[in-house]
Amino acid sequence: MKFLVTLVFIAALYFCAESTTYPNHLTLKENVFDVHWYVNTTEDRFYFKVVANTTGWVGLAFTTYEGGEGMKDYDIALGGVRKENETYLKDYWSTSEVKPILDSSQDLMLTSAMESNGKTTIEFNRKADTGDAADTPLKIAGFQSADKSL
């Protein structure tokens, strides 16, 4: 009986993970980098899916500075797949165009990460406002790309 309950629970988790839909989408470069997201306003939480035409790691950064020049005060999500399918996601902070600093408060939750056909996909979520000074508060109604060509 325990096995059956465990199996049903695992199947339910798999179905929930597979049924995630993202109504918002931004292609930063065709066939190179796509960001999908949705906001759960009840939880005040953002859910992201990043698909990049690369293997190894993928990064997504948030800032409140218009234009985003100089990597000043960037809140960075960096994740991917290591050898032997070990997945990871880390929360970083940058103050300038130097190596980002690992945030002492890890406020990102990795849902999944995978590599397939030369692409890396990571799915994660975070609170809109984590309360962490090294995290950029995300506004539910606001999005602006740092890339002026978009």
Q: Output the strand order for the largest sheet.
A: 1-2-3-9-8
What top-tier CATH class of the domain at 24-127 fits best? Mainly Beta
Classified in CATH, the superfamily of the domain at 24-127 is Cellobiose dehydrogenase, cytochrome domain
- Output the CATH topology of the domain at 24-127: Immunoglobulin-like
| End-to-end CA span | 55 Å
Major beta sheet, specifics?
5 strands, antiparallel
CATH architectural designation of the domain at 24-127: Sandwich
pLDDT < 50 runs, ≥5 residues: 1-18
Number of strands: 9
The overall average pLDDT, rounded, is 83
Structural class: mainly beta
Shape type: globular
Portion in strands: 35-45%
Keywords: Signal
InterPro entries: DBH-like (IPR000945), DOH_DOMON (IPR045266), DOMON_domain (IPR005018)
GO molecular function: copper ion binding; dopamine beta-monooxygenase activity
Pfam family, one: DOMON
Protein described:
Residues 31-150 form the DOMON domain. It holds the Pfam family DOMON. The chain has a domain at 24-127: Immunoglobulin-like (Sandwich). Helix content is 11%, strand content 42%. It has one helix and nine strands, in the order H-E-E-E-E-E-E-E-E-E. The chain has one helix at 2-18, and strands at 24-29, 33-40, 45-52, 57-62, 74-81, 87-94, 101-102, 109-116, 119-127. The strands form two sheets. The protein has a five-stranded antiparallel sheet with strand order 1-2-3-9-8, with no helix packed on it. Strand 5 and strand 6 (87-94) form a beta hairpin. The N and C termini lie far apart (55 Å).
